[in-house]
Amino acid sequence: MNDAHPSSAEVGVVVVAAGLGTRLGAGMPKALVPLAGQPLVVHAARAARGVRGLRQLVVVAPAPDLEQFRALVPDAVVVAGGAQRTDSVAAGLGALGPGIDVVLVHDAARALAPTALFDRVASAVREGYDAVVPGLAVHDTVKQVDDAGLVTATPDRDGLRAVQTPQGFTRDALQRAHSGGSAATDDAAMVERSGGRVLVIEGDPLAEKITTAADLQNAASRLRPPDGATLIVLGGLPGVGKTTTARALAARKALTHLRVDVIEQAVVDSGLEQHPVGEVGYRVSYELAAHHLDLGMTVVADMVNGVPYARDAWRDLAAGRGVRLLEVELFCSDQDEHRRRASTRVGDIEGMPQPSWEQIQEREYHPWQPDLRIDTAAHSPGRIADTILAALAAPSSGERITR
Ligand SMILES: Nc1ccn([C@@H]2O[C@H](COP(=O)(O)OP(=O)(O)OP(=O)(O)O)[C@@H](O)[C@H]2O)c(=O)n1
Ligand SMILES: C[C@](O)(CO)[C@H](O)COP(=O)(O)O
Fold first, then answer.
1. Are strands 131-137 and 167-170 parallel, antiparallel or unpaired?
2. Together in a domain, 370 and 317
3. Chain-centre distance of CA 14, in angstroms?
4. 170 with 248, same domain?
5. One domain for residues 166 and 276
6. 190 with 331, same domain?
7. 106 CA → ligand 2 middle, Å
8. Of 43, 162, 243, 371, which residue is most buried, by most CB within 10 angstroms?
9. Structural domain total, the chain
10. Where is this site: Positions MEP for the nucleophilic attack (predicted)?
11. How far apart are the CA of 31 and the centre of ligand 1, in A?
């Protein structure tokens, strides 16, 4: 084991997407093949982009298609790959800028690997390993055979793991392994050969590789939303009535109410942070929302959602899971009424500070184009909930509505 990396280590992710996809046989590079309406490389980049401490995203694409990949993943450095996967990883590694200590190498073909897996791998590298690889236990008995098919060994399957990506490395270890000029079907094998210590951590069935048409179908069925799963994103300044609206919705329909204040106070109570806790509440909300959407629940995200980053994260999450998204902005057109609400409201979460009217007015809040804008000065909470449920029942028209 190497000396532990500081937890502030900056992460670079290399998504290798330069393969031809011969076994899939889609008539185009595999990373461009659509899954739930978006190319595999877009799914893979979305998950990679969420990893904590990301400094740079590199996508390695087939040489003739660089411009197409640049348009699909505009925030990535896109470089041309080589004939073998190892060559493509080397090209990606060469494109990484300074200040990166931890490198994650990921197959675009493992398009559904979740961000949480990237985070777990990166954290384990920071604990001080040269390489960290996610893997799943092998359930079949595996035989080793010779060229004639004769069995030469039956390894104990308890000691076997089928490994996945993202695979994580200290930058030094990965560069050392690649400088040896050898090749392998995964980069961890090269680190093993160069004497590095490689840790296998628990993988994720979602990170399975899409190799054949049947794999693509399986991935599509994982993404197909259970009937009715919908993400309702509420947004608006503190005191406009988001939580009241969410409660009115919950009284009418079984749903998951994700209230960021509850999460933030729990984090503070745990002693990990103090108010204001930064983005942790939002990040926990994204993960919980994904989990509940996968269970087929409708989820109401109740938080200010004032900045484009948060709104984009919700959009990406809904698109990635193929669920309907309804963005609802609540506002209070009557300033006196808004101020009255802000100054008279009694917090129902012990320990959670209430923002003052001045703090509310200074809160960062960018103009938005949601599906629905509702004036809470003009409608009762019950009426607002009914309006939102009516919008859910209607087929999505793409029209922006203000009430
Ligand atoms: N020369 C190569 C070969 C593979 N890859 C990438 O490595 C990952 C794993 O490879 P695989 O799933 O085998 O993809 P393909 O090589 O495209 O598939 P096939 O062998 O069926 O052609 C994929 O994301 C693929 O794009 C790459 O970047 N460069
Ligand atoms: C890196 C890898 O995905 C780990 O399972 C795998 O080895 C890639 O192999 P492929 O032959 O390029 O699909």
1. antiparallel
2. yes
3. 16
4. no
5. no
6. no
7. 10
8. 43
9. 2
10. 157, 209
11. 9
Question: How would you class 281 by CB atoms within 10 Å of its CB: exposed for 0-12, middle for 13-18, buried for 19 or more?
Answer: buried
Q: Residue 352's domain spans which residues?
A: 230-402
Closest by CA to 403, choosing from 369, 377, 364, is 377
Same domain? For 206 and 328 the reply is no
The per-residue pLDDT string of the chain (403 residues; one tens digit each, 9 = 90 and over) reads: 444 555 556 999 999 999 999 999 999 999 999 998 889 999 999 999 989 999 999 999 999 999 999 999 999 999 999 999 999 999 999 999 999 999 999 999 999 998 889 999 999 999 999 999 999 999 999 999 999 999 999 999 999 999 999 999 999 999 999 998 888 999 999 999 999 999 999 999 999 999 999 999 999 888 766 667 899 999 999 999 999 999 999 988 889 999 999 999 999 999 999 999 989 999 999 999 999 998 889 999 999 999 999 999 999 999 888 899 999 999 999 999 999 999 998 889 999 999 999 999 999 999 999 999 999 999 999 999 999 999 988 766 556 677 7
Q: Residue 382, by phi and psi: left (phi above 0), alpha (psi -120 to 50) or beta?
A: alpha
Residues within 6 Å of ligand 1 by CB = 16-24, 30-31, 60, 81-85, 88, 107-109, 209, 211
Q: For residue 17, report the distance from its CA to the centre of ligand 1, in Å.
A: 7
Q: Which of 107, 206, 210 to mutate to test the pocket of ligand 2 (most atoms within 8 A of CB)?
A: 107
Residue at a domain's end among 175, 203, 223: 223
Atom of ligand 2 nearest to the CA of 167: 1
- Residues 181, 303: one domain? no
Ligand 2 neighbourhood includes 85 CB (under 6 angstroms) = yes
Complex confidence, ipTM: 0.94
**Residues 313 and 278 occupy one common structural domain:** yes
Please state, in angstroms and rounded to a whole number, the distance separating the CA atoms of residues 326 and 287. 18
In degrees and rounded to multiples of 5, residue 157 shows phi and psi of -70, -20
> Do residues 234 and 380 both lie within one domain?
yes
Provide the whole-model pTM: 0.68
* Listed residues 165, 198, 223: the one ending a domain: 223
